[in-house]
Amino acid sequence: MTIQSHIDVLRETIPPGVKLVAVSKFHPAGMIRQAYDTGLRIFGESRVQELVVKKDQLPGDIEWHFIGNLQRNKVKQIAPFISLIHSLDSERLLLEIEKQGAANNRVISCLLQIHIAEEESKAGFSPDECRRFLAEGKWRVWPHVRIAGVMGMATFTDDENQVRKEFRQLRLLFDEFKTVYFSDHPEFREISMGMTGDYPVAVEEGSTMIRIGTLIFGDR
Ligand SMILES: *Cc1c(COP(=O)(O)O)cnc(C)c1O
């Protein structure tokens, strides 16, 4: 199967309102170009160094998303062009994004990454940490960052009920935050959940944005 046929299969199985982020980490620019040529425009990378190198080799109308752990000292390198940071997990990181947004005279959109999985290793705010962060309200006064929704990763397991429960939890948190903090913020609208192994369940549970690597590009 080619990249084109993998993308065709995906397009048939996801509803039109769900955005597809093609996760191209560890794959060369040539493969990204093939996916681009089928019409995809949103690509996700998880390492700053890799992203800045590839970006220069590829068309300028690509919307780059950052999906991995983001160190504060690297925000500067992606701030001039990044479209969406999925991995906002602390106020200190948001402050740095604000600073670099201001330096580049742009507003940088971010998703609140929430820890929903059982595995300790996965990153993100706990639901209560995130509630406290939102309640404190500093995000309201920073003009160069925009909180556009939530992101989460389910436990890596074959137990579909477990995965469904976690995605549902993320969806409920989104609804809570929308009601309490973002009812006047139309830009707060994304629920980034679902990867190659679990995206059908994520879509059933209300995902607006799936992040797919292996199913498009093959193994890394
Ligand atoms: C690598 C990665 C993905 C894509 O995973 P696949 O299983 O290859 O689809 C999605 N989200 C995040 C945060 C990732 O790091």
Notable characteristics:
220 residues, alpha/beta, TIM Barrel, eight-stranded parallel sheet, 8 strands, 18% strand
Structure explained in plain terms:
The chain has 220 residues and is α/β, with parallel strands linked by helices. The chain has one domain: TIM Barrel. The protein is 41% helix and 18% strand. It is built from ten helices and eight strands. An eight-stranded parallel beta sheet has the order 7-6-5-4-3-2-1-8. Helix 2 links the parallel strand 1 (19-23) and strand 2. It starts with a helix and ends with a helix. The relative contact order is 0.15. The structure holds pyridoxal-5'-phosphate. The site of pyridoxal-5'-phosphate has 14 residues, from strand 8 and helix 10. Pyridoxal-5'-phosphate is lined by residues 23, 25, 46, 67-68, 153, 195-197, 211-215.
Describe the global form.
globular
Strand tally: 8
Kindly report the spatial arrangement of strands forming the biggest sheet. 7-6-5-4-3-2-1-8
Find the structural class using helix and strand composition: alpha/beta
The H/E string reads HEHEHEHEHEHHEHEHEH
**Percent of residues in helices:** 40-55%
Reported by name, the CATH topology is TIM Barrel
Count of spatially separate domains: 1
Terminal-residue CA separation: 16 Å
Mean pLDDT: 96
The level-1 CATH class: Alpha Beta
Our Rg estimate from Cα atoms comes to 17 Å
Listed once per kind, the bound small molecules are: pyridoxal-5'-phosphate
Strand portion, in percent?
Answer: 15-25%
